Write a sequence for this structure.
């Protein structure tokens, strides 16, 4: 099956677009998560037509297809669990059309997130979702994971910045979901596609909404002796009716790691560091920055510094964005988790997560999008050490259970993929999972798109060991 498919695709697309050497397959056997699983072949389409042809060929040969962008996903979403064709979009990297007047652009899915904003900056526009991985991840991956970022508190996640998607179906047909109109009629299938993690179709083009550069920005770096004081400042800012562009927090271990790596000027003796950024009209940002300062003072901030020069502001953000790179320097491996809890539960949750780390003998660092309660606990370890990976996995399970018990959810922005799918029953009941499985079947009746992702095994009601209810559509 694989050999015949490889031969057909090489003839159709050319040798350079198809990889099947075991070493190449090894390279594509992982994303930035923990799980490994090599695909049977890797294909690099250049166009929508290429993708449609690949889908038709894969279907004829009964080969499942897994879409992949840059492979920076953190949940094993682009990892093969069995024989599969990995369809990599990185050569579909054209920005096809920018419409500055309507503030939109049509882009191919392999365009790198940051490249899009760099390209549109002469028009005073940018693509608002800004994951810390933005210099590497693709717009297609952002769409598939409904990615967030440091500045999504005010602007919203990717779903708020996608007007339409061109999609290739498992049958190899091309369709466009959504449109340039602000409120397209009919069922919102565009909304369903965003965040579907490659399980409903291959995104081959995206009509993105572009955001005007803010006329003024003030970035405040604050430090506190205790995490509670930083968290209370976050709550105070939101309670005052402000919605800053970003509100980012780091615990002390993380600050030390970042400072050692990026030399961003963060105080390493503080229990927590908080970064707030307010954007808008020049007079408004000064007033808002003054409110943030007052709230931080009320919570005994030991440092409040407003960046004056743009270079200073960039240094602060470089520090924050280097967090994961800094941890990567400490040990050969790290595992980055992503959960979300109500903002008011941040402090209690972080304490319990620290306990989880201690229980499993792991250093647990924490960096969070504090404004929306999104936590990123990071475990630094050496997978070569016997039992280390098992401890990391066990701690991961415990910390998810802690966050769910706090009223939180499994993921704030990284998605479910392969690595969190078995936790789905913690937040969804059988009927919820069944409804999601039915939706998936409507798009992909043969189950050949990104198998084993998002939904746990047995997500259909009748798979739970009992027959389907009378009259049920199965
Ligand atoms: C250091 C680091 C920092 C990060 N910071 C953030 C952050 O701040 N916020 C955040 O949200 N995420 C973050 N991430 C996670 C990751 O970067 C995002 O999820 C990103 O959007 C994935 O893009 P990608 O191109 O790498 O996709 P991949 O990892 O290649 O794929 C991700 C998922 O999308 C699917 N997919 C990819 N392309 C398509 C397509 N064209 N059509 C259909 N499905 C497709 C894949 O099947 C997979 O399920 C971070 C990751 C790292 C390593």
């Amino acid at each position: 099956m694989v050999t015949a498919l490889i031969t057909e695709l090489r003839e159709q697309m050319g040798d350079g677009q198809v990889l099947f050497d075991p070493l190449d397959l090894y390279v594509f056997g992982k994303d930035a998560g923990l799980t490994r699983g090599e695909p049977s072949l890797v294909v690099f389409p250049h166009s929508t037509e290429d993708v449609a042809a690949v889908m038709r060929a894969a279907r004829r040969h009964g080969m499942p297809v897994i879409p992949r962008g840059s492979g920076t996903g953190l949940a094993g979403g682009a990892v093969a669990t069995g024989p599969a064709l990995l369809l990599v979009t990185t050569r579909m990297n054209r920005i096809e059309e920018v419409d500055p007047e309507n503030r939109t652009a049509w882009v191919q899915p392999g365009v790198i997130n940051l490249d899009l904003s760099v390209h549109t900056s002469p028009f005073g526009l940018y693509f608002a979702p800004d994951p810390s991985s933005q210099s590497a991840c693709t717009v297609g991956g952002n769409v598939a994971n409904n990615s967030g970022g440091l500045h999504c508190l005010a602007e919203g996640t990717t779903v708020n910045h996608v007007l339409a998607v061109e999609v290739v179906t498992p049958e190899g047909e091309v369709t466009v979901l959504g449109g340039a109109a602000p409120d397209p009629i009919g069922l919102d299938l565009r909304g369903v596609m965003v965040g579907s993690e490659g399980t409903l179709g291959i995104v081959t083009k995206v009509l993105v909404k572009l955001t005007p550069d803010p006329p003024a920005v003030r970035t405040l770096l604050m430090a506190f002796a205790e995490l509670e004081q930083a968290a209370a400042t976050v709550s105070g800012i939101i309670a005052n009716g402000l919605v800053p562009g970003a509100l980012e927090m780091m615990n002390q271990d993380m600050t030390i790691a970042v400072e050692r790596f990026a030399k961003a000027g963060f105080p390493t003796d503080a229990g927590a560091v908080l970064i707030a950024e307010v954007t808008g009209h020049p007079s408004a940002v000064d007033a808002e920055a003054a409110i943030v300062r007052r709230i931080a003072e009320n919570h005994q901030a030991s440092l409040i510094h407003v960046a004056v020069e743009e270079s200073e502001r960039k240094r602060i953000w470089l520090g924050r964005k280097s967090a994961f790179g800094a941890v990567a320097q400490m040990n050969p491996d790290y595992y980055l988790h992503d959960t979300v809890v109500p903002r008011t539960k941040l402090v209690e949750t972080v304490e319990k997560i620290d306990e989880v780390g201690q229980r499993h003998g792991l250093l647990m660092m924490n960096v969070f999008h504090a404004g929306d309660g999104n936590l990123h606990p990071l475990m630094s370890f050496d997978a070569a050490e016997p039992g280390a990976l098992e401890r990391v996995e066990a701690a991961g399970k415990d910390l998810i259970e802690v966050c769910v018990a706090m009223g939180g959810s499994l993921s704030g922005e990284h998605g479910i993929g392969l690595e969190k799918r078995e936790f789905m029953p913690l937040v969804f009941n059988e009927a919820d999972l069944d409804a999601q499985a039915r939706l998936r079947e409507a798009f992909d009746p043969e189950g050949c798109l990104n198998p084993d992702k998002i939904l746990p095994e047995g997500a259909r009601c009748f798979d739970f060991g009992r027959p389907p209810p009378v009259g049920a559509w199965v």
